[in-house]
Write a structure and sequence with these properties.
Blueprint (H helix, E strand, L loop, with lengths): L16 H4 L15 E4 L12 E2 L1 E2 L5 E7 L4 E7 L14 E3 L7 E6 L5 E6 L6 E7 L5 E8 L11 E2 L18 E2 L6 E8 L5 E2 L2 E2 L7 E3 L5 E3 L4 E6 L6 E3 L6 E8 L5 E7 L3 E9 L7 E5 L14 E3 L5 E10 L3 E7 L18 E4 L6 E7 L4 E6 L2
Parallel strand pairs: 6-10, 17-19, 22-28
Antiparallel strand pairs: 1-2, 1-5, 3-4, 4-9, 5-8, 7-8, 9-10, 11-15, 12-13, 13-20, 14-19, 15-16, 16-18, 18-21, 20-21, 22-25, 23-24, 23-26, 26-27, 28-29
């Protein structure tokens, strides 16, 4: 999301530069261990859940990342924690280092009140190694074009065992892998719903003889806690244990450039939401609308699910909706004229959110106007 950058970096006096200038303040080195880069490059697309982690380089306070350009320009920022925009660092804390001929770095306005680091003059589709030197307290950006690793791909294989007849089903096709430019690892994620507490797994092409990856001896491994190495041409099915029938899971297949294939299974944790409610409403409107992309029938207008206000409470129920995100957002409006000013009056003043416990239970979202808190109420 390009609604970024607040650019607060804890412990970094560099952010006083907005008033003092780059060369007027003496800064201290900054430890960026654990930081990530996010931006409009192929591996991220401004999704803060799809970041590339910094790797420590040989020198202290020096870090590297490898990312793939999607055009001749790349905008980016740094995040201390994946999955949240808190603590973002932008172009106003960066400076130019060693760059290839024709490539330039600048601090740019992202158009939303924040700053980006921007590299221009890149080659679309090329892999770049970015080095960040924070030894001076500023983030010095150096860039070199990097060769793509020799990825070991399994595109066109299927997890055949997830179909009751062991057929090749499109839903279980290995495609669209995530490539790690730094390690050369390739990851395929295949979602499935468990049909029993244990399930056999087999990776193969449409013709078993044209390629398959299984085990030389039957091996059991536990969901979420273990993995199993697969071998080409072997015919013993690995078995994952600890599943709950009817729940969603991801089969995760990881390969390395030397041809190693590793299989694991992870639980997709979630809650189901069946409605929303506003309590302690003290306004003078008769109807409250509930809006967010995850709500069934959401259209961001007066056709959205709505509830009639009765004694300060308005509620709505809808088809059970499964939510796997870490945070759940909700917006509510109480317009005087739904046709002419639908967004003029927001209940609570804006978007509210609550952490997702991912405990597999069924909930109703409840917004309390009096406390200005969004919470989850278990639906019995």
């Amino acid at each position: 999301m390009k609604k970024i950058l607040s650019f607060a970096l804890a412990g970094l006096a560099a952010l006083s530069l907005m008033s003092c200038g780059l060369h007027d303040v003496e800064l201290n080195p900054v430890d960026l261990t654990g930081y990530n880069i996010v931006g409009d490059f192929e591996e991220s697309g401004w999704d803060n859940n799809k970041v590339v982690a910094f790797e420590n380089a040989e020198n202290e306070y020096e870090y590297t990342v490898k990312v793939t350009s999607t055009s001749d320009k790349m905008n980016f920022a740094f995040l201390p924690t994946a999955g949240t925009w808190a603590g973002q660092v932008g172009g106003d804390a960066m400076t130019s280092g060693d760059l290839p001929d024709g490539v330039s770095f600048e601090d740019t306005d992202n158009g939303n009140g924040g700053r980006n680091g921007t590299l221009s003059g890149l080659t679309k589709g090329s892999l770049y190694k970015i080095t960040i030197d924070s030894s001076t307290g500023l983030f010095e950006i150096s860039v070199v074009e990097d060769k793509e690793p020799a990825y070991f791909l399994l595109d066109g294989y299927f997890i055949r065992s997830l179909d009751a007849s062991w057929n090749c089903v499109g839903a279980y096709l290995l495609y669209n892998p995530v490539k790690n430019a730094s390690t050369g690892e390739v990851t395929y994620t295949v979602p499935f719903t468990a049909s029993a507490a244990t399930q056999q797994l087999a990776i193969a092409r449409t013709d078993w003889g044209a390629g398959r990856y299984e085990c030389s001896t039957a091996i059991e491994f536990a969901v979420d806690t273990a993995s199993v190495d697969l071998e080409a041409g072997k015919e013993e099915h690995p078995v994952v244990t600890g599943l709950v029938a009817g729940r969603p899971y991801n089969a995760v297949i990881t390969t390395t450039p030397d041809g190693k294939v590793v299989l694991s299974v992870e639980t997709v944790k979630y809650i189901d939401v069946v409605g929303c409610k506003v309590v302690n409403y003290d306004g003078d409107k008769n109807t409250i609308y509930f809006l967010e992309a995850w709500i069934p029938g959401n259209a961001w207008n007066k056709t959205n699910p709505s509830g009639t206000v009765t004694e300060g409470t308005a509620s709505v129920t809808f088809a059970s909706t499964r939510l796997t995100s870490d945070s759940i957002a909700l917006q509510m409006t109480d317009p005087s004229d739904p046709d002419g000013g639908f967004w003029d009056s927001k209940v609570g003043g804006g978007t509210k959110s609550v952490a997702n416990p991912k405990d597999f239970k069924v909930y109703i979202l409840v917004y309390d106007v009096e406390t200005d808190e969004l919470s989850l109420e278990e639906s019995l």
